[in-house]
Design a protein that fits this description.
Blueprint (H helix, E strand, L loop, with lengths): L4 E5 L9 H13 L4 E3 L7 H11 L8 E6 L1 H13 L2 E5 L5 H5 L4 E4 L7 E4 L1 H10 L10 E6 L7 H7 L4 E5 L13 H7 L4
Parallel strand pairs: 1-2, 1-3, 3-4, 4-7, 7-8
Antiparallel strand pairs: 5-6
């Protein structure tokens, strides 16, 4: 069933202004104007972020919705997909954010608005740990784009986490998937929105 509702979840210190979020938004607007599109600005608290997202999609049809998530947003997208029973596209998804983000406790700046600051609190690490799941639900409903050249996350951890899912493993690239335009067709094909 084609996707009629599409959610995009950005990564840590990122925003709806990220290059990938804007590319997906533009493609939806230009080629799929009837698709409901939502890319919320996520708060630093993982619990608050998931509360906002789950309330926002509460009335969406699970069989016709999908979520795309990048980095920490990929971790969140995995949680959302398991909870909602929908398809997920994961772009260099964080696998162990409680472990990896523990060193970022303190004041942080936003990538897309360096003047905007937020405080990453110790309790947020516990909130991330509470969102960690076991095996991914419905691995055939997941498509992961993973770059071996990711300078932030380990591609081996990502491929192990999403074993059984459709995986596009890139030989190079980077954490931001700077060459995302080369892979957006595959993302939309998976969503049956090609």
């Amino acid at each position: 069933m084609p996707v009629t509702h599409l959610l995009y979840l950005h990564g840590f210190r990122s925003s709806p202004r990220s290059a990938k979020a804007r590319q997906v938004a533009q493609r939806v607007a230009e080629r799929h104007p009837d698709v409901t599109w939502w890319c919320p600005q996520l708060p630093p608290s993982p619990q608050d972020a998931m509360n906002i997202v789950m309330q926002g999609i509460a009335r969406w049809p699970p069989a016709a919705m999908a979520v795309v998530g990048s980095s920490l947003g990929g971790f969140y997208a995995t949680y959302v997909a398991a909870a909602a029973g929908c398809r997920a596209v994961l772009l260099n998804p964080a696998v162990h954010p409680a472990r990896d983000l523990a060193r970022y406790i303190g004041e942080q700046t936003s990538w897309h608005a360096p003047g905007e600051r937020f405080f990453f609190e110790p309790r947020f690490v516990d909130e991330l740990r509470a969102l960690e799941g076991g095996a991914i639900a419905g691995p055939t409903h997941c498509f992961a784009v993973i770059a071996k050249g990711d300078e932030v996350l380990d591609w081996r951890e990502m491929t192990a986490r999403y074993r059984g899912a459709r995986i596009k493993l890139l030989e190079g690239s980077d954490h931001a998937l700077s060459n995302f335009s080369l892979h957006i067709d595959d993302v939309f094909a998976f969503l049956e929105l090609a």
